[in-house]
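Researcher: I'd like a candidate sequence for this fold, 156 residues long. If you have to choose between options at a position, lean toward the conservative one.
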């Protein structure tokens, strides 16, 4: 006997969005934008996954809620007093930001995934997928057909 409902302690994306008084689409966008940051700069990744479905426990939901409130307050303060913001930029040639092994792994993965284009410019692609061009000439192998070759008997 299986149930399509998660255990009572797990909250779905729709339930979390409702409790935040936001739309599910807004929450998905917030999480997706946050996921694109370096691992040490991510602020809203407090959920687990069951398959591809994000789920939150009550403590994880509370952490997400606190982080969203803190981010909103920080943005409000930064808009009101732009000169008082702290910076993680270079100060006298020394990087003052956080560094971690995850940052290095993330940067390494970005370098490995980089594929320069033939003309030297990089064109943005949808969902990171490379565009595929075809030559217009189709061969039997490009159509998925298998070619068989018969070997000729050796002449001695």
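Model: Candidate sequence:
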């Amino acid at each position: 006997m299986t149930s399509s409902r998660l255990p009572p302690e797990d909250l779905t994306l729709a339930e979390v969005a409702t409790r935040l008084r936001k739309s599910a689409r807004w929450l998905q966008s917030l999480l997706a934008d946050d996921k694109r940051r370096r691992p040490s700069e991510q602020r809203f990744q407090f959920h687990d996954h069951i398959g591809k479905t994000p789920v939150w426990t009550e403590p994880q939901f509370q952490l997400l809620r606190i982080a969203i409130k803190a981010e909103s307050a920080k943005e409000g303060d930064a808009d009101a007093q732009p000169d008082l913001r702290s910076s993680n930029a270079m100060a006298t040639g020394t990087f003052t930001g956080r560094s971690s092994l995850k940052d290095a792994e993330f940067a390494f993965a970005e370098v490995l995934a980089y594929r320069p284009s033939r003309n030297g410019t990089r064109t943005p692609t949808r969902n990171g997928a490379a565009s595929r061009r075809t030559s217009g000439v189709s061969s039997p192998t490009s159509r998925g057909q298998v070619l068989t070759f018969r070997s000729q008997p050796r002449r001695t």
